[in-house]
């Protein structure tokens, strides 16, 4: 499960091409309605070195963030957040999500670059069926459903406002910033292929996500309808994630 807060995010103020793979959330078969989220073996992705600069939350401040990263248009990973997220992590356990929001309808998007197809299901249906299935090699992104955002109903209600109220923002967001929350859940090896992203903050609450970051130019080669998992797996076998003629390799981090 993840909570996303726009302006700023891990990519600081740089405009980047972003892809991410959810490498661990749940097992492949349900055991009981209130069992916890379960780990998934991400294979070689577990051994990848983080090439994004990091900063511990204990050393983080808005002034340092703006001076060191935002001013340089550089991404940063904030570490040491687990203790800060104990309450929100409890609010997003599998059992709590099913008990509190299982009957809420969520709008799912196809997990391709442009996310143009939408499907509405209850959160319970999505968790117990779609999330339980690990994305496989050969599975098309435009045939894979993923929940991220689309929180406001047609009548203007946001049923997730109570959950969002339990999320305590960090002090790294400038006062007066235009802020919007986005929350989502993805199954093993799910994720959206490369797409352009502006300033924002992305935080993984439960499980792991593997991020790929690159400047807009030169644009990495990718098929918008190929899953992020397949793209990353093929590039991993090739030994390079960016194009062969790119001056620098893409940044990545779990």
Automatic annotation (TrEMBL):
Gene3D superfamilies: Cupin (2.60.120.650). GO terms for cellular component: nucleus. The keyword Signal applies. InterPro entries: JMJD6_ArgDemeth/LysHydrox. Keywords: Signal. One of its GO terms (molecular function) is cis-regulatory region sequence-specific DNA binding. Residues 1-27 form the signal peptide. It comes from the Eukaryota. PANTHER family: ARGININE DEMETHYLASE AND LYSYL-HYDROXYLASE JMJD, JMJC DOMAIN-CONTAINING PROTEIN 8. This is JmjC domain-containing protein. The lineage of its organism: Eukaryota, Viridiplantae, Chlorophyta, Mamiellophyceae, Mamiellales.
């Amino acid at each position: 499960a993840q909570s996303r807060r726009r302006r700023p995010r891990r990519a600081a103020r740089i405009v980047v091409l972003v892809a991410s793979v959810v490498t661990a959330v749940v097992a492949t078969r349900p055991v009981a309605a209130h069992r916890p989220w379960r780990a998934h073996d991400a294979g070689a992705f577990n051994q990848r070195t983080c090439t994004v600069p990091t900063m511990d939350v204990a050393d983080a401040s808005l002034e340092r963030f703006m001076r060191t990263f935002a001013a340089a248009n550089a991404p940063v990973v904030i570490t040491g957040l687990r203790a800060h997220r104990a309450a929100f992590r409890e609010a997003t356990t599998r059992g709590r999500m099913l008990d509190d929001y299982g009957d809420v309808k969520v709008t799912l998007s196809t997990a391709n670059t442009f996310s143009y197809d939408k499907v509405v299901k209850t959160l319970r249906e999505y968790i117990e069926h779609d999330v339980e299935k690990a994305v496989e090699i050969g599975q098309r992104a435009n045939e894979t459903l993923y929940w991220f955002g689309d929180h406001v109903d047609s009548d203007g209600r946001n049923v997730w406002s109570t959950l969002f109220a339990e999320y305590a923002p960090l002090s790294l967001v400038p006062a007066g910033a235009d802020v919007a929350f986005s929350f989502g859940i993805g199954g093993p090896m799910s994720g959206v292929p490369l797409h352009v992203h502006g300033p924002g903050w992305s935080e993984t609450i439960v499980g792991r996500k593997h991020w790929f970051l690159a400047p807009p130019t030169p644009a990495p080669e990718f098929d918008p309808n190929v899953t992020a998992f397949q793209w990353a797996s093929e590039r991993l076998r090739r030994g390079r994630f960016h194009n062969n003629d790119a001056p620098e390799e893409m940044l990545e981090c779990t």
